[in-house]
Amino acid sequence: MIAVDPRDTSGTCSRCGHCAKDNRLTQAEFRYPACGHTAHADVNAAKNILRAGLALRDAAQAVLVGGWSRVRCRARWGCSRR
Q: How far is the C-alpha of 73 from the C-alpha of 7, rounded, in Å?
């Protein structure tokens, strides 16, 4: 499980990323006129939370894989590159 800060996820457009309080017309309705995206506000927020969680997961994996690769490179080929 990855913890994601939910702030502004219901006011951010899950299609183009624009964030404004005006995007959330009612408790249930989300609409951003510039890109034309409309959705239930909770569904829109869920997509933003999913995207943020996946980005955090990918960043954590990149650090782990990058660290492993440096260790393997030094052990196997004597690389000193950091």
A: 41
Question: Residue 50 in contact with residue 12, Cβ under 8 Å?
Answer: no
pLDDT at site 25: 82
Tokens standing for residue 53: 């969680």
Q: What is the DSSP letter of 24?
A: B
Read off the tokens for 8. 């502004």
pLDDT, tens only, 21-62 = 888 888 899 999 889 999 999 999 999 999 999 999 988 887
Rg of the Cα atoms in the chain: 19
Parallel/antiparallel/unpaired status of strands 29-32 and 37-40: antiparallel
Amino acid at 62: A
Distance (Å, whole) CA 18 – CA 82: 37
